[in-house]
Amino acid sequence: MSTMYINCDVPTEVSEEDFDYLNGLTFNLSERGYLQCGSKEHYLEYLHIIVAKRMGLDTTKLIDHKDRIKLNNQRYNLREATKSQNAANSKLSVLNTSGHKGVIFDKERQKWIAQIKVNYKNIFLGRFEDYEKACKIRDDAAVKYFGEFST
Description:
three-stranded antiparallel beta sheet; GCC-box Binding Domain
């Protein structure tokens, strides 16, 4: 593992086997927070995609950062993902008021609702008086549907 500055002012972490190759390229920070290549052979390609290709991953799929840190481009942190898996590994929305993914409070019934979205479909998991129970049910469903991608 190396934290490096690769012809860019933004530090990123990459695996040793990629350092020399990447250090010869130029990168800029994109509006989305990813490092984007400005060099001719990888023009406008994201750093994590370049690394994924070098790893032999299928880059027609999404490439997910396991720890959700866009500047951690070490090989152990990158994996292929479907859109649904990638969404399952996303951070908590700023619109979330419960503090837990997939859990909302039903003011009318005064109960917590647990739900999960799988392949663009909302799955209702139940209403619960206990917040912790709703969170546990939602977490169990995330593991069931998303396995290692669940958060």
